[in-house]
Amino acid sequence: MWPLDPLTVVLFLITFIFLAIVIHKQRERVHPNYPPGPKPWPIVGNFPILDMQKPYLSFQELSKTYGPVFSITIGVQKMVVLCGYDVVKEALVNHAEYFSERPNWPAFTDYSRGYGMALSNGHQWKAMKRFTLSTLRDFGVGKRIMEDKINEEANCLVQTFKSYKGEPFDNAMILNTAFCNIIVSILFGHRFDSDDPELERLLISLLDVSGSLGSPISLLYNAYPSLLRWLPGGHKATLKSTDELRSIIRGMLTKLRIELDVNNPRTFIDYFLVKQKEEKPDPELYFHDENLTSLVSDLLFAGVETSSTTVRWALLLMMKYPEIQKNVQKEIEKVIGSTEPQMAHRKHMPYTDAVIHEVQRFANVVPTNLPHMTSQDVTLKGFFLPKGTHVMPSMTSILRDDKYFKKPDEFYLQHFLDSDGNFVKNEAFIPFSAGKRICAGESLAKVEVFLVFTKLLQNFTFTAPPGAKLDLTGTVGFTSHPQKHEICAKSRN
Q: Helix 122-138 and helix 289-300: axis angle, to 10°?
């Protein structure tokens, strides 16, 4: 044992404080035109003034003092936050080539291993994005064949809801299962039975990873990875859930690899495996197993978490505003009747279209967005951002921008309806982000949400259980879920 006499302890503390101040001062040496922000404390940075549960709310408040482009320090890592549609558009769209990289945040890197599409960079990201978009198109995303697949799952959902015979139930796992089966059918060519234990393992792992990536401990881990990597805590649970998710995916891939017919690829995975075989002689490989595992994980998150959460919010809001629900049902009866909903109906349904848009805006399912990083020195709104600057475009600040939305904190359909009841577009409506890093699953998500929502409202009237109070406060996590609640689905047939 080392002697711990008082003098040793005092010398240790003095040395530690001295080094902390030196590191802090070095971090503070920035360009004179670097964005302003609150003065950071040594070591902890701006942690003391941030809402650790919902940091995006702190960003909103700080932007009132420092403007739409400001800096904060997380631990010893500086980051620039962008608030409001105008500045985010200028960065991600007008200067897309400078803002399309991802920073190396430890929690995200542990999840992706630097592979896949959502969090990778460079040629690898471009290769995965090109492959994903072209393959999804080949599988009918945006075409009638995909609509039929989604409607098939929506019909199963209707039967499940009917089985409760109007009694209260929690719809969270039911909707997660339905949307999981849609994306799994594209990726793997089959669907799960609702009681399949493999499905339960998959969904639990997805939800655990999603919840932990947006948790306060994840924020701390990103700030102090060298320290926390060796200590127990919630970040260890994230690693465990991530390993479990990757293990499940690899197990599902094994069977498809055995059954692969290179002359007749039937699934998204088949197409990847064919490309893998074609690429073998190439020394710079992109179509390898690690990329495939991370890419499948990315698509599961995009196809399950955000879409199912959006529909949960939609049903909750219909219970909260029964008159709006009645108006949607009247429009469904007028345009769709008792036939199968199709995307072609949407252009004739301005009210329902406005409801879905306002649900996505109000729900703010991904409140903080994914981080970006500058690929070279760039000037934004007169401020200098050096190459490698971590940038956080606040999705909350866009979807609640009072310059574009008259009542940003309310569920207000007139954000997307004119006085004559016609649907109106709003350029600040970008729930899937914007620029080169826009969500690759946007097209699929739009079809899923419209078809499932209209199918459910066509068949049911949704009410809260007797005496229940409806809470419209979102939960903590990378995605913002409704608070736990039950619904009553009264059959309209």
A: 60
